[in-house]
Amino acid sequence: MSYLKLIDDKIQSLAESLSSILNIETTVVDENLLRIAGTGDFYYRINETSPENSLFAKVLKSGKPELNIYDRNRAICRQCNNAHTCKERKSMIYPIKVEGDVIGVVCFASFNQTQDEIMLSKKEEYLDMLEHFAESIEKEITGIMMMNKLNMGIAEINGIINSINRGIIIVDKDEKIIHINSKAIKALDINFSSSKIINTRISDIIKKFKIEDTNNKELLGNWEIGDKILKVLYKINYIILDNKNISTLIDFDTLDEIVNRAMTYNNDNVITFENIVGRSKVMMDIIDKAKVAAKSDSTIFLYGASGTGKELFARSIHNASFRKDGPFVAINCATLPENLIESELFGYEKGSFTGASTKGKIGKFEQANNGTLFLDEIADLPLHLQAKLLRVLQEKKIDKIGSSTPTDINVRIISATHKNLEEMVRRNEFREDLYYRLNVIPLYLPSLKEREEDILLLSQYIIKKLCNKMNKPEKYISKELEEKFMSYCWPGNVRELENVLEYAINFSDDDEIGLDDMPEYFLNKLSRDNKINYTDEAFGLGSIDINNLTSLDEMTREYEKKILKKFIDLYGDTTEGKRKVAKRLNMSITTLYRKLNDYQ
Asked: Residue 244: pLDDT band by 50, 70, 90 thresholds?
């Protein structure tokens, strides 16, 4: 029953107290067979659903207690779907009833011989305790219903919203709360048992809150709750319940919760999509596409400006694929000298060349066998190796240096670059056939400026991560700096954001990071960005040497060249940046590319 979920913390606390006193295990299950609370083995199965042919289901249906303390192999246990894995030896189950409806069950259970003996010897006492346990929950729910006027007839709505792992508040046309889930209650730090929440105006809980449709777009908000400020990402949509009046659904997550989820790595530091910080629509769209792409074995091409998280995406894709148990191997094609790239990628046999290891060398392709090979900065791969890579993609074989026998490999390729491969193909700097082999599933990673909604969320994540790493108390950025961060162009994207925050954490004297704590280059660029305008001086008309230009056409071309360069500097030398420039200058993308080629 969803109303049990509203007080799951209180139920869990009570269950733990009883378990400690009685030396047996305790659990509570709602009317949907969802485990609300539990101790011992039950604790690890909280939020799991019990079978519909279990003893719990029987008590929910009959509304009568069930004792299974004499023969654990009775028929009801044998037919339960969990019979082969169940560790319960004996159990007592009692219904929880409110207004005549069974809304859940409470259970005492044994998991060892000592607990068996206790339950047998104190059967009557324990059954009485179990009844009191159920009654205490019934009184709690009844009190909440009286205070908050909860409607048992629409419990299915509460059941749905309580299953969502985000805060959910539903208000009526008068902006009064009619539904709220347990996640929202905890996030807002409300004592639902002793507070009147239902039928209270939303603005009485969240001060100065305005109801307006966000068109399914998440907004960043600073909610004032009591004397505290809660940073949230939220969206508001209008809905119709029971084919009646239009209601408003407020769907939110706290920034702390998002950051904590992103910082949760397993013991092997496996990076997944959960570790990618971003809730903007453009970011969620690309994550959804990447999740779909991960399920196939096609080559993936990640493109976008530097610092947008290409390797983070590559690792997340690998760990969401069927190759996740295989190796993930990354190589940056731009960092190795040209004469070493071939041996690094393909390996060599012993004695293949002067200075070669006497044992030979396994290349990255072999290291990544049955896994994923991430080729970062693929645009910097020399032309002669591009042909060799193309053969690998086509034939699934590699030729080691010094070997006459090809080696079979089974590798998925994910490549990435911040350069424009399309232009490089046109300039014959990158093989067209290889480009199409790599570009089967292209994924554009947006720049930080294209996902402004994520800037402050990323800032909080980076600050928390750096403060933990540097063993410093957690800091926060001032309101003034938040505004500057939102207006700044971030040419270095997330990498630049991390750099300026690391600088600030080192030099800030208190918990608040202000504008004065920022590095000088950031302040200078911020000042220049604020002064950008589209005057003749900004585009350098005064720097055109009219004495050396012989015609008006020549002067016009020179000026046009400066304008294009200025806009490319402003929006970025990427495919997406050029699309923005073309739109800003009211020309087709084809015309823009032609002009840029003419002026090179």
From this structure: low
